[in-house]
Amino acid sequence: MKLGVFSVLSVLGLLAIGVAFPWTKTMLIIGLCYGLSALGVAIPARSGQVSFGHAMFACVAAYAVAFLARAFPLMDGVVLIVLATLVGTLFATVLGSFVVRYRGIFFGMLNLAVSMVIVALLGKLYELSGGTDGIRVPRPVFWGLVTERSEFETMLLFMSCGIALMAGWFYQRFTQSATGQALGGLKSNETRLEYLGISAHHILWVGYAWSGFFVSLAGAIFALAQGLVTPDMGAWTRSGELVFIMILGGSSHALGPFVGAAVFQAVKLFASAYMAGVWQMLLGFTLLAVIALAPEGIMGAWQTYRNRSGKGAQP
Amino acid sequence: MNFDTLLLGVADGISYAGLLFLVSLGLTLIFGVLGVLNIAHGSLYALGGYVAASLSAFAMRHAFDATPWLFFSLVVAAMLVGLLMGLLLDVLLLRYFQKRDPVIQLLVTFAVFVIFEDVQKLIWGTSPYAAGEIVSRLGTVELFAVTYTVYQIMVIPGIALASYIGLNFFLKKTLWGKQTVALTHHREVAMAMGVNVKKIGALVFVLGAMLGALGGALAVPVSSLTPGMGAEMIVVSFTVVATAGLGQITGALITSLMIGLARSMAVYLLPEVDVAMPYIIMLLVLLLRPNGLFTVAQSRRI
């Protein structure tokens, strides 16, 4: 079975779960947002640059939703998502022009530093941002309809599923494109890439902007699904979780980050039900186990298994 | 801003810088020698603090409540935590994950950090801990019109400076120290020259871990311990290390002082951005000097 077909089927499965068990809808949407964000983090990671501050784009987009909704209470939820994603992407593009000059630890640290500044400011500027309590986002008009909570969540779930599929498709295309291939080349040898006449700076910038786009989109949806935005959304531990999800699922295929997010949410759910208070510990041990046993993540291990059992490589 | 506030800001800044320097020193030492950016250093800081609080409470209950004993309990706590955790990290990072990508090694330390966040909560709970006894025992000192505790203005910076001098002495004058320096220059050549890389690696990890734990232990008497303090400290000490240049010991001293002072001044002058101050400094520095303030020109190490 092709992984693309598998992705479509699993999205349909998610929709079925959401419709059959309405209480799972918020959880599913949040899981998809995590997957989408981790997909964003995976793009610069292809070039060997791991950011420890990417959650800031989700945070910026979420606050954009909150501010817009406060300023224009009648604005449609779809417009909110689009505009907030634009704001987040624009921010990523501007910030990207500066951070792509750095590599390795410095790249990760600069992203972290900027995200810490944003979180600190959002927490302190009480009049503007509501401080650490955050801002409530009332349920907006959605696709021109005034909805009940349950309907709204169903529509948001369908939309998130559609977006996740499109994002996955885009990611697969992107990795095959010239830019995507150059990003991989940057990881193995930046000097040779430059000799080929490709600007490493430019390639990484484009990748960074796209990754910011995905994380912003996820953040905007997250804000509507949760109905509340807080500075915590941009905390460095949140960024760490995104990196964790990406490593867990593997970034060799677009499905990876989503599988990672599913496992992440499952571990969290399991821990909160049976081992309250130690869920972080459980996550830590999972991460150690994945790094030790499946360095390419779950998807990487799966693909290696497929190749070894002679069923042919998957694109 | 009047003179007294300025003085108070400077005193706060020096005391904070002392703690910051101890933690950053351990971090930059481990990075300089082993090339691992150790996020679990935050757990060391927190664990050092918790063990110190428990140990000094134990000492008070069992008639060891003379001031030197209390001080001794803080230091012993740091040594214990450093020894155990340093060896654990050494085994994890250098034995099992040595050949991996630096980013993967960083994630291993992140996993250890996350695990220990819960370990702390399981052992010590979530309510704040404090051990302020030693601060009031040591009394206060008058600086012009400002009264300040001896512990914060003398003991913490004093120990920080002593650690700086001690580490420099170790690295420059002792055999093991020289072997450590050799290891930072070139791992393979050092091995070929007969340096026991495993032994030196473990030594550096234990030393670095002890410094991190010492920072935590010394912080207990002046601040209360809460979950999440490790996370905050590790991020700030990262900014110190990155601003100074990775592996720069003297640079870390100066940068700690700079960031410590800037932050405590901001508390009085610009309270909106006090928490963000270290990061703003780091952004400005890295804009002008992409490899940190004190790095001598060389090829990228990571």
Provide key terms for this protein:
heterodimer, A: 315 residues, mainly alpha, two-stranded antiparallel sheet, 2 strands, globular, B: 302 residues, ABC transporter involved in vitamin B12 uptake, BtuC, two-stranded antiparallel ribbon
Can you offer a commentary on this structure?
The complex is a heterodimer of chains A (315) and B (302). Chain A has one domain (3-235). Chain A is 76% helix and 1% strand. Chain A is built from 14 helices and two strands. In chain A, strands 1-2 form a two-stranded antiparallel sheet. The longest helix of chain A has 28 residues, at 149-176. The mean pLDDT of chain A is 88. Chain B has a single domain, classed as ABC transporter involved in vitamin B12 uptake, BtuC (Orthogonal Bundle). Chain B is built from twelve helices and two strands; from the N terminus they run αααααββααααααα. Chain B is mainly α. The model of chain B has no long low-confidence stretch (mean pLDDT 83). Chain B has a two-stranded antiparallel sheet with strand order 1-2. In chain B, α1 (3-34) packs antiparallel against α9 (197-219).
